[in-house]
Amino acid sequence: MIQSETTECIDPAETVITKMREQGISSLPRNYELVYRFLNSSNPKLILAYAALGQRPSQIQLDAIGMRFLPHHYPETAAEQSLDSVYNEMLGMIRMFKKDQSRLRKYSNVLGETSARMSREDARDPDGMHDMRRILSSATGDTLEKSEAVIYQMVEQAKELTRLKSELEDYKRLCAIDPVTKLANRRAFDKRLSAIYDRKSETAHQALIIADIDHFKAFNDTYGHQVGDRVLSATAAVMKKTLGSEIFISRTGGEEFAIILDGTGPEEALKTAERVREAIASTPLKDHNDGRDCGRVTISLGLCMATDASGPQDIYNKADAALYDAKKNGRNRVKTYSPKAKRLLSLLKG
User: Fold this and answer.
1) Fold adopted by 186-349
2) Which of 201, 284, 297, 335 is deepest in the core (most CB within 10 A)?
3) pTM above 0.70?
4) Which strand (E) or helix (H) includes residue 299?
């Protein structure tokens, strides 16, 4: 008797999602398409370009590849800029028409007053100028009515554009939020991280902390992905409660979080990181479905001051190297970027 082998059918969508989680890629529709194309493409140039990104690529890097290889891949900013441009041009045209309309009204009033006065003085108007003024007045009135109709249509279109802008703003807010933790997502983090180096005078007082949940895979394997999502949500909630709403916190992918501190020095930044670590370590985790005690969650953190890095990617790499150092030395601890971490960074790059 021949026994047939059964092969498990792999869901392409699940493969794409798994790949995005592994690389810390935000869940934007255009990113799904790009990762899917990479996993299923026969284009060697696309495969090489994507593979060169490595772990945790920025949205700018992803969009650069998407624009190069996918015909319908456009960054969200293109739509925003187009809508803003049309909206501003529409408002400019409305202002111009209203200005011309005001002049026409004044001119029409002058013609009307002049015509009425001269009619009283000379009803016969032998030189025919009265008819000319009447014609001019009538033409001006027609132009005025047409301009009012155009303005009405443009105002209505401007209202529609305003509605579209409002919907786009809502979409932008949703695109910047991680659906599991309700924190800022990777896209928002990349934008905020780049802003650190926009003003050199403020760079000296900013810091990046990267945090990673220890043994997160064990939670997923033991209790399932639903409990894993609760672990992420609980960790995010403790971070928000500990740091407050003024401090930028994001989930950058998988079980990784990032904190950007403003107006801080090295000692204060380290104290903040320790405060977050202790708060999470002291919070028990329970399964809301059956009340099971799932133990306690701990996190490892890597810290780098903005002055110790040359730019957004550099500070991220250095904070990541410090995080790797914390993991390597026992987890549930904070490490600051140092010459030792510099050596680890060189090993990670190699």
Assistant:
1) Alpha-Beta Plaits (3.30.70)
2) 335
3) no
4) strand 299-305
